[in-house]
Specification:
Elements: H1 6-12, E1 24-25, E2 27-28, E3 33-34, E4 40-41, H2 43-53, H3 75-89, H4 91-95, E5 99-108, E6 116-124, E7 129-136
Antiparallel strand pairs: 1-4, 2-3, 5-6, 6-7
Amino acid sequence: MPAVPLSALLAAGPDLGAPSPLLAAKWDPNRRDYASLFEGEDPTDAAVVHSLCVVRGSGAAVLDTGMEPPPPTMLDSLEQEVASAARQALARLVAAGDIRIKRAGLSLRDDGNQLAEGRVEYANLRTGRDATAAFPMSSAPVEV
């Protein structure tokens, strides 16, 4: 079998449609705990959820990662404040070319526990798939 030079492999580049060989732990933002020990999710999708579920600057590991939750306000301006906070929380992933945000804002709910949740619709540019991340508005992001 002939040897394939390394330069030929590097020139081909990564297969962006292929699933990541390593999976990140799946996090449940409503319970603030790992969703499963037996299944994982794409690392880019996990980074989106992580960025929306921790308070920016609340620990040494998250100085530039996380969300600054908007202060309580009237519902009409809350949509803009949540969208702005979510875009700021995900700015590092956008700048790195990992994701492209399609929509950020509120999604109204009627489940008896909370009236609204934050929602970000984005394109995972590493896998080429569209995804949605939701985070609860009834409680602040986790401090680490």
